[in-house]
Structures are given as C-alpha cells and as structure tokens.
Specification:
4-stranded mixed sheet, elongated, Helix Hairpins, single chain, Chaperone protein DnaJ, HSP40/DNAj peptide-binding domain, 13 strands, 3-stranded mixed sheet, alpha+beta, about 25% strand
C-alpha cells in the first residue's frame, strides 16, 4: 500500500463529498475508463486506471472504510474484515426479501477483482469481448421515510423498473441506510440471474431534534425564575404510540440550573437497529433574559442584587 495516490484525488472529489457524490464520481469514471472501451494500444493503461478507480471506490464508497482511511490513510484502509464486494455489515430476512446495512469495515483489498465492483454498480462486467454480463442490472432508488415510520418500522409497496416490491422498513432506520433486495433488479440476459435492488432510506427528522445514531438532542428555554427556583417542564421525546412519533416527557429542573446545562433522558430516543435497546434524548438548557421588566419586577431584582 506504499506510495499510492490519494483516493479522493483518484475519484476527483473533495474530502467533504457526500456518499452520493462518491458513488456518482465512481460511476462516471468507471464507465469512461473501462478496458473494453479503450483502444487495443491503450488497454494496459486503461486496466491500470480502472483498477485504481475501483480500489478507491471500494474504500470511499463504504462509510466505515472511509472513516478509517480519513484517520489513518492507506494503512487504515485494510482494517477490519468486510467482504470483498464492499457491502459488509449484517442482514435480516423478511419474507422473500433480504436487506443488509452497509456498516462493515473493509478488509485488505490487494488482489481484488475490480470487475466485481463494476458489476455490482452496473449489473454487468464489460461492454464486449470475453467479459459478458453475468446477471441483470442492479437498480438504485431512494425512499423518503417519515419520522414515525422510522420510529415504529413500516411496510411499503414501491414500484420500480422490475415491478412492485414490498419494503420492510426496520424500526430505528437511519438516514442513508441502504436496503438490499437480492434478485429484485432487472432480469439477466440469456437466462442469467436478475440483478439486485438497492434502496437508500432518506429519513425526515423533526426540526427540534438533532440525531446522532440512536440518540437525539434537543434544547429548551427557561425563564430566570425557573432556572433559579427549579421547575418541572415538558420536553419532546420519541413516542412510538404517537402518530407523529414524537411525544413529551416531564423533566425536573433543579434550583440553580445554569445556562448550557445538559440533561439526559435515558431510553427516550430512537430504537436501535439491531433491536438491542433504545437511544437517549439529551436536553440542553438555555435561560431567557427578559428585555423588559415591570416596575415591580425591576424593584425586586434590585433588592435581590443588594442582598
């Protein structure tokens, strides 16, 4: 792995590029530099460039591998034990469909077949010659998921090029989670196996929440008296019984609470994807200082200030 070019440079993207931008850059370059598209005299260079592009995508196309690469460079790209196709993680079976979460870190990819990655993205290995199609084309779609459906899980019937597919949305699904449905892509040529269907979940989170995996963060505003004397206030939390997926819980504010104090409400956040518990809600406190005071309020505060 010594003296290798930067993977971001290879794909022509910045380090802040989104995963969608990574995928789009790969698809454009892989098509452009596929060896079957090169002239006979240029095939050797095309094959070198094609392998380089696929190697970069095998790392940057996976969020966990990309994180290791960003931290450790090429040395970190070989950490972990994901599968050679770049879709490591864990899967679940719901009826005839299987979906998997792309969360695995990648293994060492020395000696990998770049045509496997190309086939995964495009559904075929080459444009001609000996590398013919081995299965149908993969399909890629995005699905908007309401917050309530992300909280409770849901079943949807969606129409894609290959027909109608029943989608099981797992409780706790995160924005960007990729669901894989094996064999639900386009039919393969000459009796070959069909491709796969990949659906990326786009989860809408209410504006008053910020989400970090299974935890949520929110903020509340207290007046001076509540912060000084203490109070019991209601704060937004996840509630699977609510039609919106959002409910409220009571939070006890102790006397003397300072601005910026953060409280933790355990098990009031999102369900964990693997069914192992529930995340938390973190509540940050802001104290509102009134811009105008009545004469009596001003007198009392002045008196307080002289004590």
């Amino acid at each position: 792995m010594q003296n290798k070019r930067d993977y971001y440079e290879i794909l022509g993207i910045s380090k802040s590029a989104s995963q969608d931008e990574v995928k789009n850059a790969y698809r454009n370059l892989a098509r452009k530099h596929h060896p079957d598209m090169a002239a006979p005299t240029d095939k050797a260079e095309a094959e070198r460039r094609f392998k380089e592009i696929n190697e970069a995508y095998q790392v940057l196309g996976d969020a966990q591998k990309r994180k290791s690469y960003d931290q450790f460079g090429h040395a970190g790209a070989g950490f972990g034990s994901g599968d050679s196709r770049g879709f490591g993680g864990f899967g679940s079976q719901y009826g005839p469909f299987t979906y998997s979460y792309t969360s695995g870190a990648g293994g060492d990819f020395e000696g990998f077949d770049p045509f496997d990655i190309f086939e995964q993205a495009f559904g075929f290995r080459g444009f001609g010659g000996s590398r013919g199609p081995r299965k149908g084309k993969n399909l890629y779609y995005e699905l908007n998921v309401d917050f309530a459906d992300a909280v409770r899980g849901a079943e949807k019937v969606v129409s894609v090029e290959s027909g109608k597919v029943t989608i099981k949305i797992p409780a706790g699904v995160r924005n960007g989670t990729e669901l894989r449905f094996e064999g639900r892509g386009l039919p393969g040529p000459n009796g070959m196996s069909p491709g796969d269907l990949y659906i990326t979940a786009r989860v809408t989170t209410p504006a008053h929440f910020q989400r970090a995996d299974d935890d949520l963060a929110t903020a509340i505003e207290l007046d001076f008296a509540q912060a000084a004397l203490g109070a019991v206030v209601e704060v937004p939390v996840v509630d699977a019984t609510s039609h919106t997926g959002v409910g409220t819980a009571k939070l006890k504010i102790p006397a003397g609470t300072q601005p910026g104090t953060q409280f933790r409400l355990k098990a009031k956040g999102m369900p964990k994807l693997r069914g192992a518990g529930v995340g938390d809600v973190f509540v940050s406190v802001f104290v509102k200082i009134p811009k105008k005071l009545s004469r009596e309020q001003k007198r009392l505060l002045e008196e307080y200030g002289r004590l």
